[in-house]
Amino acid sequence: MNTGIESLLSMSAKKPCKRAEQRLPLQDHSALTRHNSDRFISHRGSMDFDVARYLLTEKENESGVHLTPFKESYKRELAASLLQDGAIASKKYRILSFTSKAPAPPEDIQSLYSENVAADTAPKSKSRRYIPQSAERTLDAPELVDDYYLNLLDWGVSNILSIALSNTVYLWDASRSATSELLTVADDVGPITSVKWAPDGRHIGVGLNNSVVQLWDSASNKQLRGLKGHHARVGALAWNGHILTTGSLDGLILNHDVRIRDSIVQTYRGHEQEVCGLKWSMSGQQLASGGNDNLLHVWDKSMSSSNAATQYLHRLDEHRAAVKALAWCPFQSNLLASGGGSADRCIKFWNTHTGACLNTVDTHSQVCALLWNKHERELLSSHGFSQNQLTLWKYPSMVKITELTGHTSRVLHLAESPDGYTVASAAGDETLRFWQVFGAPDVLKRTKSKEAAGPFNKYLTHIR
């Protein structure tokens, strides 16, 4: 039996003792020195625990508890033994004792807690908002035509995004993450070359490769009418109230009043090659058009005539490549931003009252699309070779705030959500990505509903 006990004792002796305090991996040990520590460990060598226990129990006995004569005699002898002279009140024994004064806190800690209270009332600079560097959502967009001169993406006021993929227009309801097919055209009239929501968020214009523009009702999935007048594909559309403006490969710009049978009410002649960019100003008084002839025109509604071709207000020829990217400033009505193609690579800012170029910024890559931030003085641009990035600029300094990468081919199209916070980008890599680039509402309540399987599903899904 002794042998068994000895073996157990020897095993316990060989077992290493567990350390009382373990350090975390990669922890900066230099920050935990005595002089920089935020705590002070008492020195127990100067303590008398027997005396401390006696003093504690002495206070409890003074609470009115009557002791027997024997316990009273024992108490006096114990006090005389522990405190030697029996003068309990004159002795200053401590329960906890320190060998030296606790060290002063580091200066950085002192300054942290000794700041002037008045400093808190001083006005604080606006903190820079967080901009996620990756797409919030990525959707697959097979058969997206990789053509710089087309406009195949738009986001309506009803929070429904439309995208043209080859011969089909799909609708994605952002509020429900639901996808539906609006229309599919035959091969002899397709592919679809442009889409644009009407201001009511229900009707949508669809430009075709065969020069016809169709007007559809998204609620009933029915075609309302076809608009003719061009002689080649219609790659650019823009709405101004009940007027649908169309731009074509034939160089013409037509204003269609969709309420009347003979829809063409104005014709704009000025471009010598394909019209690839069209944007009405927010006031609806001026129209900007960009073409493959490197020209940017500004047209004034008050100068429009139904009897003859309308004369442009300004003919701007400073770009050295096709002008597709156009964006009217939301906080300055006469400010227009335009972007040039791969031989130009510049963003230019124009005063449309005078026709003067206010600023030019070389982006070093093809400018495919432009969007203004509705909430801040910022401009977002999408680009082609070599980074295929989205760049956010601070206006008017045009300092880069951030660059967003993820697409592997040129980012041809941009569309902004109705609330002005989310941007959708479509690229030649056949993906559609959503970016929270313009911030978020002050109160953003997101409900995560179960999303149905199928087209346009979360993460990477197939439209068809």
Fold and architecture overview:
The protein is mainly beta. It has helices at 2-14, 49-61, 69-83, 107-113; strands at residues 137-140, 153-155, 160-165, 168-173, 178-184, 192-197, 203-208, 213-217, 222-227, 234-240, 243-248, 252-257, 264-269, 275-280, 286-291, 296-300, 314-316, 323-328, 335-340, 346-351, 356-362, 367-372, 378-383, 390-394, 399-404, 411-416, 423-427, 431-435. Strands 1-28-27-26 form a 4-stranded antiparallel beta sheet, with no helix packed on it. A 4-stranded antiparallel beta sheet has the order 2-3-4-5, with no helix packed on it. Strand 24 and strand 25 (399-404) form a beta hairpin. The termini are far apart.
Q: Which band does the percent of strand residues land in?
A: 25-35%
Question: Which residue ranges are poorly predicted, with pLDDT under 50 across at least 5 consecutive positions?
Answer: 1-37, 86-90, 443-464
Number of alpha- plus pi-helical segments = 4
Oligomer: single chain
Helix content: 10-25%
Structural class by helix and strand composition = mainly beta
For the secondary structure, the number of strands is 28
Which sequence of strands runs across the widest sheet?
1-28-27-26
Ends: how far apart?
Answer: 80 Å
Gross geometry: elongated
The average pLDDT value, as a whole number, equals 82
Query: Could you give a short account of the major beta sheet?
Result: 4 strands, antiparallel
Radius of gyration: 38 Å
